[in-house]
Records
---
Amino acid sequence: MNKVKVIISNDQKEVPIPSGIRLLIRRCCHAVLEEEGFNDKAEVSVRFVDNETIHELNREYRNIDRPTDVLSFPLGENGVYDTDMTSGAKLLGDIVISVPKAVEQAQEYNHSLQREIGFLTVHSMLHLLGYDHEQGGIEEVRMREKEETVLTKIGVKRDNSYYMEGE
């Protein structure tokens, strides 16, 4: 697999970003592309925001008037992506994660914030690649299976924090 450039920005001040989260996000992005057999150079943007910002984005782009955990803004369709003419990278899109919502969900599901952010990143990367669970059924089952496969491969288990040997 070729290289993926992951641009991460923190546009919220409510929750300090734990050590290792940026590495985790990069590993999640790489693992999804590897699992999907995506062999081109790629670029993806990940933005941390607060609930107010994601609420505004959710209302503006999805007509849903409440905060959510993650939003995906794909730049491609049916496997066709814009290309950065300088680097040759396929521009996959943007991931927006509400860190306060991720904290809330980690507590609700009784797992680590690392697990929650890893899950949200993998989930959103699959959306950027064209997967959709909104209609339920077999597509939702396929997406959930892929999420767990990727998370398990990089060591983010259902009941564990993120870990890497040698860290």
---
Amino acid sequence: MIELENIDLNEIEKFSSRAKNWWDLEGEFKTLHDINSARLNFIIRNIKIRGLHVLDIGCGGGILTESIANQGAIITGIDASKESISVASKHANENNLEINYLVSNAEELSKNITNKFDVITCMELLEHVPNPLSIIKAADKMIKPGGHIIFSTINRSIKAYALAILAGEYILNLIPKGTHQYEKFIKPSELISWCSQYKLKVNDLSAIKYNSILRTCSLSGAPDVNYILDVISND
């Protein structure tokens, strides 16, 4: 049974109902496909992940998970949506990738796992849960001393509201309407402060700059919309 305390069931249903579209490069999740190379580049510029044990929290259909597996990591992907995990598992099998997929969430997994993973990723999830700090706490429990935890999320700024919600959802229709709620966006300073409560030290912070016209992505500029953060466990 999945721990439900930090799960928004409406969010799970939203993504479960769209699960069949995870690997449609021109579908509802095309933006995640477009930014995936930038997310992976951020990871591998900080960590040599070949042979490392990696956990991808909120893996969805496995877009990033598969990219990490292709780098030679030993990876587990978890998501609270069984429909998303089903799609992810099927796609990995079709591509002969060994990925351990589980229907679970960070809190539930951390009940029985301590200091196991070298790297933990949590991409575009914190802004979809009731208590982001709960995920940080669970990740801190599961990471090895000196291990890296990487979060990506959206800044709570006027520019982010204009681009991620108004333009992204209502003008350009890049993602389905209602995907984001502005009040759940997280300022970098807030995320860093939460991480510091668990003695997680900032190693790298970068903007994820997305050009919706060219559908290109880069790790440049100020983190005023999408951004990615790498912290290291000192425990």
---
Amino acid sequence: MEILQHTDIAVLGSGPAGLTAALYAARAQQRVLIFEGNQPGGQLTITTEVENYPGFEHGIMGPELMDIMRKQAQRFGAVSLFEHVTDVALDAHPFVLTTDRNRHYSADALIVATGASAKMLGVPGEADYMGYGVSACATCDGFFFRNQRVAVIGGGDTAMEEALYLTRFASEVVIIHRREEFRASKIMLDRARQHEKIRWITSTVVEEFIGETLPTGVRKLTALRLRNTATGQQWTEPFDGAFVAIGHQPNTDLFQGKLAMDANGYLLTECKSTRTSVEGVFACGDVQDHVYRQAITAAGSGCMAAIDATRWLETVRHQQNTGVSV
């Protein structure tokens, strides 16, 4: 196997966590390769306006924010590779990474920032209006729906949490669930049922997200086409926004059997650190965070991962140079 390039730290993923990790590591004089993956810039590249990231008083478009982060990391020497890692060998040092271009790279340390993907319905119009009325994050986008009517699709705790959060802004929140029974815990379900702004449509699925294109050229969600699962009846109901809340899937398939994970596939890290079950491998961002899932928390953990990785490398190099354990 021919190794095309060796680096001190390889960063897998280029969202807020990965690019912040790359920035801190490169600024600490480490050689850094960023494997940007299938979605360079992460989930923020499919987000329109970001208003809750500190430092941008009037907000900033998601793709622009990620481009700034990338350029800042590159300013200190980090190198972006627009390749997707398809295999990792973690059983020996240095680690070996193989990409979709059948290229092989090696790294002394690895930072995993591959993120998590919101589970989607996969029905017509969903992708077309993502970021234009369709969202998978109430905390991120709820503010944009002040005094508007929104739908929350799902029946678990995530759906209840999203619905309750949205009541702060929306005039009405409609929970749409495919069954009469709910997976949500009793306490969360009771809270939602007791809220005056929340109403329910059960035994119903979304068949299509419907919208229009405004004179400005901007797309906008206007309605959902629904189907009752018991009767087969279909109808269209107007909504200003729709939040898909059927869960998230961490992007960890690459590490199955190689890194310790929880029952849902999120990477496990040691308490108050980003260290994983393999020495020299660190994890940050949504790939190990199923609670907050925000750009700012991802960036913060990216900083932590870079510091952890740099300190680990310095310790290893000291041992190699002196033969003394520290």
